[in-house]
Amino acid sequence: MISRFVKRDNGNVRIMSDLSFQVTEAYKTLRTNLLFALAAGKNKAIVISSALPSEGKSSTCANLAVAMAQKSAKVVLIDADLRKPVQNQIFKCSNSKGLSGVLAGFDNFEEVIRKSVKLNLDLITSGPIPPNPSELLGSEQMSSLLERLNEQYDYIFIDTPPINIVADALVISDKAAGVVMVVRHGQSNYSEITKAVASVEFANANILGLVVNGIKEKSGRYGKYKYGRYSYIRK
């Protein structure tokens, strides 16, 4: 199971080139663990979610996608949070067209891909917020889109809404290789994490592991960072 502690970001969303050495190395370790977790399968789509809002899932998703692209892999990041999208803000691009338009049949696939937002990384923003996010994400159009992307890209990162709030992540999870859960130190609690994990398992999806976000950076060497395991949240 992948698991890594990432330092507190004080609420600012920053991507790899702006992060400290310790945090950059933490994301590289997550990348390595993901590579091992996905090595045996052909499906390279990874759903990133959390139990509740404000746990750092979107910034973690963005940084993992950038970290994977730095390995010279061809990566696409999809903002599938069709309720409160932020990836267009993180990468500072337009959100006038995106995933929602493709799934609803308003936009063409080629129109919505933002090429090379970072080296080897393309982005599909959410597009305008639709009235029926769960239905669009669970549609045949979404399945077809993921199949097409799986042929064109080495890895697909999918940013989704919190699992305990809406079902959006769950309707995508069975189309992906697995789910990475992001939890925030000092905020996420055992019962909410357990509830989210149970929901993913009930949807017959794989849980690749979790990332503990919001750990305060301590002075000293990189060795101060600790590894954890997903298994501790199970009963």
Overview of this structure, please?
With 235 residues, the chain is an alpha/beta fold. It has one domain: P-loop containing nucleotide triphosphate hydrolases (Rossmann fold), CATH 3.40.50. It contains nine helices and eight strands. The chain has an eight-stranded mixed β-sheet, with helices on both faces. Strand 4 and strand 5 form a beta hairpin. Helix 1 crosses helix 2. The longest helix has 18 residues. It is globular, with a radius of gyration of 16 Å.
Task: Indicate the percent of residues in helices.
Answer: 25-40%
Contiguous runs where pLDDT drops below 50 for at least 5 residues: 1-12, 219-235
Query: What's the order of the H and E elements?
Result: EHEHEHHHEEHHEHEHE
Strand order of the largest sheet: 1-8-7-2-6-3-5-4
Instruction: Please name the CATH architecture.
Output: 3-Layer(aba) Sandwich
- At the first level of CATH, the class is Alpha Beta
Structural class: alpha/beta
> What is the first-to-last residue Cα distance?
17 Å
- Per CATH, the superfamily is P-loop containing nucleotide triphosphate hydrolases
Strand content: 15-25%
**Global mean pLDDT:** 85
Number of domains: 1
Choose one word for the global shape.
globular
Quickly count the helices.
9
Total beta strand runs: 8
What does the radius of gyration come to? 16 Å
